[in-house]
Specification:
- Chain A: This is ABC-2 type transport system permease protein.
- Chain A: The chain crosses the membrane at residues 21-43, 49-72, 112-134, 140-169, 181-199, 228-251.
- The complex is a heterodimer of chains A (263) and B (261).
- By secondary structure, chain A is mostly helical.
- Chain A has helices spanning 2-17, 20-44, 55-72, 76-86, 89-94, 99-129, 138-169, 173-186, 198-204, 214-220, 227-242, 244-256.
- Chain A has one domain.
- By secondary structure, chain B is an all-alpha fold.
- Chain B has one domain (2-254).
- Classes of the chains: A mainly alpha (263), B mainly alpha (261).
- Chain A binds chain B through residues 21, 24-25, 27-28, 31-32, 34-35, 38-39, 41-43, 45, 47, 50-51, 173-174, 177-178, 181, 184-185, 190-191, 195-197, and chain B through 24, 27, 30-31, 34-35, 38, 41-42, 45-46, 48-50, 52-54, 176-178, 180-181, 184-185, 187-188, 191-192, 195-197, 200.
């Protein structure tokens, strides 16, 4: 356990060395949130609520989705693909830790770093620029914290899955891009799932994507209340367990048929 | 004449290398198409809940987005300078560029050509075709030339802003994240300008004129008379910003001292 904690710490410190990059990162997120703020204001245009969400909730939804993304987002899929391409993975595999576990911990180190240096200051700045609504209920914050942890787990599992597939295809740029597209669209980052047409919502119930962004943001804006919060968290929990199975299976097979390129 | 022939020779070489890896090319086309559809899906879903966005209908919004894709694709194909600092200044590649017999900026454009981005322009035209069919737009014979002019103008706006940013590297070779920031700002130009507040509108028109890439020129084809003045300014603004960029570039090249050995 100690060694995994150490990996989080090292990644955190590594990111700390390049922290100036993150000040512009905050600006970029603010710019994006601003664009959606104006768009949504125009879309609401006097309407008090669409799909049960007020304009204030929607603005908060947009802001918190982007700030949460800073936490759960990572590039471990690309890192794995890169290490396979360069043959580095061979060395990693003989080290005394689980390769996938190590990648996840590195991702977590990055996420925690961005949480402190991007999300928190970013959220304060955006709350000065745009009319956001923060809940005063401590339970909402607790549920939200739990929810973004699960977002991180599910997003990382999907990234690991996509990365491990590289063991079979050797070059899977296409898959990585397709995954990004699906997550952009169906995680709820650019649009709350409840805005999609009914049939699309039904289909998305059978996929884990809304667990990444939609559920935590709905909890934060208190668009989910009571039982809906519990259901959302359960949905996330169930998916984070389900995804372990294909991951383990693929990983087992992948290790057996590993071909090291030029390693 | 010399420039034109060099341009086409580079283009031919580029196509040869790309066609070697047809599967990769296909994947790239497909993923570009996917990312272009994200915004389209956003517009379609949102208009399931409203009919007008500040007086713009769904199909007009789609048309603007379609138009935006054309100058953006041209820019992506010919002005790949977002990594100019790393590729040319830090690695010292600029030294080699300066020994070439064509203008240094032109040489970089040739080397960094990415013709596959042009597919985005085709997508854009299909989207525009769809929107204009639904809007029953009427076109005159000269509209085609105006379209070319506006698309080129939009491309020059983009090129002007991004080349100007690239020239910062001549003065300071520190890495900066100003390029991705500008990229995100440029997305504002895809939506009708009147949804923003006055400050942002002013910036998008005169300082970082990204409104001239999407909404202003589209307004002409959509027959929005109140925006005609801005629409016809598109090529002018494009030229002005591009000329400023070239001037900055030439100044920067004079200052360039080379890095490394």
């Amino acid at each position: 356990m100690d060694k995994y904690f150490e990996m989080i710490r090292i990644r955190f410190l590594m990111m700390l060395a390049y922290r100036t990059n993150y000040y512009t990162g905050i600006l970029i997120y603010c710019i994006n949130i601003g664009a959606y703020y104006f768009l949504w204001s125009a879309i609401y245009n006097g309407k008090s609520a669409i799909q049960g969400m007020s304009i204030e909730q929607m603005t908060t939804y947009v802001a918190v989705s982007w700030m949460a993304r800073a936490f759960y987002f990572n590039n471990i899929d690309r890192e794995i693909a890169m290490e396979i391409k360069e043959g580095k993975v061979a060395v990693e595999l003989i080290r005394p830790y689980s390769y996938l576990g190590m990648k996840t911990m590195q991702g977590l180190g990055e996420g925690v770093f961005r949480l402190f240096f991007l999300s928190f200051p970013g959220l304060i700045i955006t709350s000065l620029l745009f009319p956001l609504h923060f809940s005063s209920d401590i339970r909402t914050w607790g549920y939200f914290a739990l929810s973004i942890m699960l977002s991180f787990v599910i997003n990382s599992q999907l990234n690991l899955l996509a990365g491990v597939v590289t063991f079979f295809t050797l070059n899977n740029e296409g898959l990585l891009r397709a995954k990004r597209f699906v997550i952009d669209l169906f995680s709820g980052l650019i649009l709350p799932i409840s805005f999609y047409p009914h049939w699309a919502q039904e289909v998305m119930k059978y996929f884990p994507f809304q667990a990444i962004s939609y559920i935590p943001s709905m909890i934060f804006t208190e668009s989910f209340r009571g039982q809906a919060v519990i259901n959302g968290l359960l949905f996330q929990l169930v998916w984070s367990i389900i995804l372990l199975f294909p991951l383990q299976l693929l990983w087992k097979v992948a290790k057996k048929r590993l071909v090291v390129q030029g390693g | 004449m010399f420039y034109v022939s060099v341009f086409f020779q580079y283009m031919a070489q580029y196509m040869k290398t790309k066609l070697q890896y047809r599967a990769d090319l296909f994947v790239e086309f497909l993923s570009d198409l996917m990312f272009q559809s994200v915004n389209l899906i956003f517009i379609l879903v949102v208009f399931g809940h409203t009919t007008l966005l500040h007086g713009w209908t769904r199909d007009e919004m789609i048309f603007i987005y379609g138009f935006f894709l054309v100058p953006f694709a041209l820019f992506g194909a010919f002005f790949n300078i977002w990594d100019f600092n790393e590729r040319y200044i830090v690695r010292g590649e600029m030294d080699r560029v300066l020994t070439r017999p064509v203008h240094s900026l032109f040489q970089i454009i040739l080397e960094r050509m990415e013709l596959e981005s042009l597919v985005g322009g085709v997508t854009g035209m299909i989207i525009m075709g769809y929107a204009s069919a639904r809007l029953h737009l009427e076109f005159h014979w000269y509209d085609f030339f105006l379209f070319l002019l506006f698309a080129l103008g939009g491309m020059l706006v983009y090129a002007g802003v991004f080349i100007s940013l690239a020239t910062i590297s001549f003065w300071s070779d520190a890495r900066s994240s100003i390029m991705p920031m500008m990229y995100n700002i440029s997305n504002y130009g895809r939506y009708p300008i009147d949804i923003y507040n006055r400050v942002i509108r002013y910036i998008l028109t005169w300082i970082l004129p990204f409104a001239f890439v999407g909404v202003y020129p589209s307004a002409y084809f959509l027959g929005k008379k109140e925006w005609y003045g801005y629409a016809f300014l598109t090529p002018v603004i494009g030229l002005v910003f591009f000329m400023i960029a070239v001037m900055l570039w030439n100044k920067g090249v004079k200052r360039y001292r080379g890095a490394g050995n």
